[in-house]
Amino acid sequence: MHEPIVEVHELTKLFPTTEGGDKRAVDGVSFTVSPGQIYGLLGPNGAGKTTTLRMLSGLLTPTSGYAKLSGFDVRLQREQAKRCLGYLTASTGLYQRLTPRELLRYFGELIDMDRAGIGRRIAELIEWLDMGTFADLRCGGLSTGQKQRTNIARALMGDPPILVMDEPTLGLDVLTNRVVLDFIRAEGARGKAIILSTHYLDEAEAMCDQYGLIHDGKLVGIGDLATLQAQSGKRRLSEIFLKLCGQSEHVLSGVPEARAEGAA
Amino acid sequence: MNRYRRVGTVYRKELVETLRDRRTLMAMVVVPIVLYPVLMVVLVEALKSEAGRQEKEQYFVCVPDAAHKDWLEGVFKREAAAREEEERAAKTAAEKVGRQADDASAAFRTRLGAEQITIQVVPEEHLWDQVSQNKYHAAVLLDPPPDPSDFADGRNRVVQILYNDTNPLSDVMYRQLNLVLGNEMERIIRARVRGVSGNEDLLTPLVASNVSTTSPDRQFAKALAMIVPFLLVTMTVTGAMYPAIDLTAGERERGTLETLAVSPVPVGQIVAGKFGVIVTIAMATTALNLASMTAVIHFSGMDKLFTASKPDAASVELGTEALIVTKGAEDGTGLSGLQRENLDRRRQIEAQAAKSVGFIASAAPIVLVSMIPFAVFFSAVMLAVCSFARTFKEAQNYMMPVMMAAIVPSMIVSYMPTIKLEGALLVIPVANVVVLMRELFLGNYTVSAISLCLGSTCFYAAAAVVVANKVYGNESVLFSDVGSYKTLLLRRFMRPQRLPSAALALLTVALLFPFYFYAQSGLMRPNAPDHNLVVIVLSQVLLFAVPVIFLTWYTKTDLAETFSIKVPSIWHALGALLLAVSITPVAFLLQRLQFQIFPASETIRVLQEQQAALFGEAPWWVLVLVFAVTPGICEEVLFRGFLLGGLRERMGVLKTVVTVGLVFGLFHYQLEKIPVVSFMGMVLTLVCLRSGCIFLSVIVHIANNGLAVASERFKAIEVFYDLPKDAAELGAMHFDLRTGMFLLVFVAGLILFVPKRLMPARNEPAKS
Questions:
Q1: What CATH number is given to the structural domain containing B185?
Q2: Is A18–B484 a contact, with Cβ atoms under 8 angstroms apart?
Q3: Measured between CA atoms, how close is A264 to chain B, in angstroms?
Q4: What would you report as the CA-atom Rg of chain B, rounded to the nearest whole angstrom?
Q5: How many structural domains does chain B have?
Q6: Does residue B503 contact residue B469 with C-beta atoms inside 8 Å?
Q7: What are B103-142's pLDDT values in tens digits?
């Protein structure tokens, strides 16, 4: 097994609430991911998946704990850490008045790629993701599927070793869904460390090597499918999840005061 | 360097995207290039046609009886005849002096023709109603009534004109009647004088020949100076508004901000790029507006219209000259050599003005340059304010007060033509730039006024950029589900912290600056020493000490850390002592040195005299309390406490010391004082920063001010320190053994504070 490339240690995030006091959105979450692994961070809406991934990506500052990407501490060596990271969610927008090609060029320049390298990489991604027909149209006029492909290309622009995907298939049609899942598998096979958060448990079961089941900000189950099956005595991931949470009636319907996961 | 390249990348991309936005293009290009000239042309045409209409309109005047009617008609006839005669005379005279004759006729065109005026009789008791109900434009009533013998009866009469202010035509008629009746009176007087003495020249002991030394386009500039700054401010703000909203709240609303935040680019570089785009668009809007305005004024002939609507200086002069020439030929009076020269000079100025591109075109570049600090400042403010907003709509709501803050002061200033660029106005944001622009138009300004004006504006702009940077990167603003901006502003959401943020420290100091400036200049009263001393103490305590101590408490910041409350090491205490005894003569030495290189202006002597007048003969201990102890504590609390606390762990020693020192110097806004005071500020900052003890810098500060103040009252101190007695002595260089000794002590003290390695600061810089 490779050395872990993603290292999350006791990440905790407290949010001040308007009533005063704090809400523990994420509470002492730890896990590691190695190159080539697809790690599934699973849980219902409001469980703390997005907050964990945002801390992992340097978008939020953890209240305590740390995350390291390729050995760089996300909080202290923010730029080096972010350089190793491709980040994708279902909700990330595109610049409406740029074309996918201009957009990719922009992000290429932001990560300090040279001009020739950018051109080469864009050509590669356009061919691979079959974006030829819309690469020079303004993003504002693209379909959802085309937008998500552009987003994937954007996340892959610098060919980062780590990919963080927060509900990447939320709200996609069957066809685009398929494109996204295929791409995740292919990138995993190419040796990337992938962290995938989703509340579609069946989808996850078909993709991931390792799981972290998160509920109310805490990890309630960690390991591969066999470990989790042994731990819970259940076979399907959804059953395991219910069992481990011990709160069968609330879990999958979502916590009442759930924050809108993935809504940005 | 990578940093600049990335800022450039962000800038280019945002500019491209902004220029593809229809709303920005509307505000930036369409408004000035299409709508604006159309508006101007419509306005000019409306004015022209209004003027034409007044000339073509029929006017009705009512009188109580036929005698009035006959008399008034006679007056208008005599007036018309007199004008014709005058015009003919002017033409003849103009030919005599060899000038174009049609110039001369212009002066006689402004009067209404007799054929436009109808005089009708109405019953006496209805005169008032007829005019007030706008059925007649005016009524004329004589008492005693006119005599058929046309005033030859030698009686004096009262003439009453009834008119209606709110009806413009009535107003025109009133002015016309006033003029015509005035001329009629002159004719009657002439006739009476002729009857008595046979020579009416008795009536013109003085013939006025008025010559304006300003070129007509300068006069036009005066009118433009009232309106143009206001228009430009409005247009600049409008131009900057859409990009400011779009690049911040717009980006957040569309969900692209998260993508940008996850890229390995520091927030500061992103904000810098965006800020550059907003400034660019604001300035482009300003430039386009100015260019379009210049073109419209130039080609629409508005300036000509304007000069024509003034009492036509040139032509009137020509008329007078013609009369004088005609008369001169008759009785020997005429223009002297110098008077004639002046008239010729005036004519040359007019000829030049007619040929030149026009004042507006030549002033435009200067005005554009003076708009840059304003554009920078407002772009920064808008960026900061919009950064708080999550949606386009929210940002638009926030923009309203910002727009008002820009437009209202410029409007007020536009309506105060006598207000001068001096005193507190120099540092009042927005108002100072508007007045500066007006002064640039008129050509009245001083270098120190401009530099203070632009300098303070840049200072505010910097503070606004820092805030924008801070707000933009804040996670509770980045993600709507993390909490609202309330968490940024309300005390109960704040987490205890060791030191204030650099943004808060700089912003606080920037906001205090205009208030302090106002207290120091605006609230002082001559010959009221007690009042002035109280103002000084109160402004120090209420503006310097109280706000920052409150802020420190409010933001749950550690008081002891922020204000460096600590027991110093013995070496640092010794160093402070050495500095305390030697700093005053060294300060004077530096001041003398400065005056050797840049001689003191007369203002410094005047200021000293004013100072003496403001504070009178208070007892020495009061002066020491007011000018040494109070500032020694309050200024240290603000600069070496709060400001230094905000900066010291975010910059190296050198940068911190220079920054705090310069800001301290800027607060002592007299240009001549700034260099030495900045140096003193740097020394004090170094003392506090290195010892970690604010008491040491307080002691050095009090010692410096106290010795300078006390030396004015105690000869012994002045002699011991060999301080200059007056401004003249301060202007002369003087260096002897004693001064050298003090300098040595000073350097020795300073060495105790100089760090082993100049970088980095006392504490490891915090990574954030």
A1: 3.40.190
A2: yes
A3: 6
A4: 36
A5: 3
A6: yes
A7: 444 444 446 777 788 999 999 899 999 999 989 999 999 8
